[in-house]
Specification:
This protein is an all-alpha fold and about 130 residues long. It has 3 domains: about 40 residues; about 45 residues, no CATH class; about 40 residues. About 80% of the residues lie in helices and about 0% in strands. InterPro entries: LETM1-like_RBD, LETM1/MDM38-like. Keywords: Membrane, Mitochondrion, Mitochondrion inner membrane, Transmembrane, Transmembrane helix. It is a single-pass membrane protein. This is LETM1 protein.
Length: about 130
C-alpha cells in the first residue's frame, strides 16, 4: 500500500545511512589496497577496479555533501540527479537504478553485436563476390 510521509522519510534516512556506511567500508578497504601498493605489492584486476570505483565515489561525494550540509538544499537533489545522473556515489544507488543501468549496457552490447554480425556478413558477401 501507500507509505506515509514519515515512513518515506525514515526509508530515505536509512538509505543514506546505508550508503554512507558502505562508502566508509569501501574507503577502509581502498586504504588497505593503497598501503599494499605503496609497499610494492601488485593488485589484482578486481582490486584495481574496486580501488578506482571507490576513488571516483569519494570525488563524487564532494558535490553531494553540499546538498546534505546546506539547509533545504536536499529538496533540489532530485533536480540535479535528473540533470547529472552519475552525481551520487555508487553506494547510494537504488536497486532499480542499478538494474536500469545494466539494461542500458546490455542493450548497447546487443546493438553492437548486431552491427558486427551484419558487417561480417556483408564482408563475407563481398569476399565471395570478389573470389567467385
Amino acid at each position: 500500500g501507500k507509505k506515509s510521509l514519515r515512513q518515506k522519510a525514515v526509508d530515505e534516512l536509512k538509505h543514506y545511512y546505508n550508503g554512507f556506511h558502505l562508502l566508509w567500508t569501501d574507503t577502509k578497504v581502498a586504504a588497505r589496497m593503497v598501503w599494499r601498493l605503496l609497499h610494492g605489492q601488485v593488485l589484482t584486476r578486481r582490486e584495481r577496479r574496486r580501488l578506482l570505483r571507490t576513488c571516483a565515489d569519494l570525488f563524487r561525494l564532494v558535490p553531494f555533501l553540499v546538498f546534505v550540509i546546506v539547509p533545504f538544499m536536499e529538496f533540489l537533489l532530485p533536480v540535479f540527479l535528473k540533470l547529472f545522473p552519475d552525481m551520487l556515489p555508487s553506494t547510494f544507488e537504488t536497486e532499480s537504478k542499478r538494474e536500469e543501468k545494466l539494461k542500458k549496457k546490455l542493450n548497447a552490447k546487443l546493438e553492437l553485436a548486431k552491427f558486427l554480425r551484419e558487417t561480417i556478413a556483408e564482408m563475407a558477401k563481398r569476399n565471395k563476390a570478389d573470389t567467385g
